[in-house]
Amino acid sequence: MASNIPMSPQLEQIHGEIRDHFRALANGFQRLDKIKDSTRQSKQLEELTDKMRDCKRLVKDFDRELKDEEASNPPEVNKQLNDEKQSMIKELNSYVALRKTYMSTLGNKKIELFDMGAGPSAEPTPDDNVQVASAMSNQELVDAGVKRMDETDQAIQRSKQVVEQTLEVGTQTAANLKGQTDQMGRVVNHLDTIQFSIKKASQLVKEIGRQVATDKCIMMFLFLIVCGVIAIIVVKIVNPNNKDIRDIPGLAPPAQSRKLLYLRNPEYMGR
């Protein structure tokens, strides 16, 4: 008997809750046989499904607690506890298979095990649909329940793998986006630097152009001055008696002939 197995307070509490759920399931299926209305039967099955879901969670809690205490228990006690766990799993699977049978008789062939949203693997097979409670043995019920439990666990594992792969892809995508964002920031900064350099170069070219234009004007003005001076000098040399052109400072007029001076001087004339 399970009551003779030594258990820790935690295991004993979980074991008691599981047994309470089993008694509630047994009473629920007994009442289900007395219900004739299909709507009330479906509602009763939903309540029993919730009980089985809670019972499955408690069995998993029992298994985890058992593994935590396995090192501190003697081998004989561990064996008895494991046997009790297997017994509870088989009993739960029998209720699962019995629920499936009632679902088949009610015509709800598309309702999945525990309403956990499993895929095509959780849909009723043709063999399950034709079996009824009166035609199935206890071993068949246990086997069917174990099969359904395994399919449900496999579906959960597949869902976990999909979630992990999705998280991994999301993390990688976020890293790639961050790298691209940093790269775009560097490109924008580089473009700003190039634009600033182009503006500075344009300003420098304009300044150089203005300086060149100013130098050309100055050179042209000096050239005109030199040309004017040369022209005045040439005119003075060619026509020294031209009074319209003033003498250029530093440039003396040409000297008169010595002969003319002698003729006009009275002293020289008296001699």
UniProtKB/TrEMBL annotation:
Pfam families: V-SNARE_C. Its main location: membrane. Gene3D superfamilies: 1.20.5.110. Keywords: Coiled coil, Membrane, Protein transport, Transmembrane, Transmembrane helix, Transport. The keyword Protein transport applies. It comes from the Eukaryota. Signal peptide: none annotated. Residues 146-208 form the T-SNARE coiled-coil homology domain. It is found in: Membrane. It is a single-pass type IV membrane protein. The chain crosses the membrane at residues 218-238. The keyword Membrane applies. Residues 45-98 form a coiled coil. This is t-SNARE coiled-coil homology domain-containing protein. It comes from Brassica napus (Rape). The lineage of its organism: Eukaryota, Viridiplantae, Streptophyta, Embryophyta, Tracheophyta.
